[in-house]
TrEMBL record:
Domain Complex 1 LYR protein: 9-60
Protein name listed in UniProt: Complex 1 LYR protein domain-containing protein
Xref: InterPro entries: Complex1_LYR_dom
């Protein structure tokens, strides 16, 4: 049986690793914290032990990934930086789409609409391949 203490410890470890992975840049640090908080709140009512064990494993793998991103400025760091950038642009897009007052050609609008779907697909594939829990 998994205990609440293990998830509280996981939350705190993710928080610290997330801060370090963005080199303590304030804006990105706040974005990472928001993503961690949302992920935990999404699964707050989860009671299935198998799902909780999988979430704990994914959380531990994510901590390792974030720690690697903080130590090396390689592909891991680029992924974390791009996650923060996409969150920034998505929040701006939610407030006001970039083409709200423009008349785009139909094929341009379709390309713009599927870009977010392609990003989410790539992120989902990275998560499944590495057993991570990135958002």
């Amino acid at each position: 049986m998994l205990k609440a203490e293990s998830f509280r410890s996981l939350y705190r470890s993710l928080w610290r690793a997330g801060d370090a992975s963005v080199a303590h840049k304030t804006r990105n640090k706040l974005r990472i914290r928001k993503k961690i908080r949302q992920a935990f709140e999404d699964h707050r009512a989860e009671t299935d032990q198998a799902v909780l064990a999988d979430l704990l494993e994914r959380g531990m793998n994510t901590i390792t990934f974030l720690e690697t991103a903080s130590r090396r400025r390689g592909i891991e760091h680029s992924i974390v930086e791009n996650l923060c950038a996409m969150d920034f642009y998505q929040s701006r897009y939610d407030k006001q789409p970039p083409f709200w007052n423009r008349k785009l050609k139909e094929h341009q609008r379709k390309l713009h609409d599927i870009a977010g779907d392609e990003y989410m697909l790539a992120l989902r594939m990275v998560n499944e391949t590495l057993k991570l829990s990135l958002r």
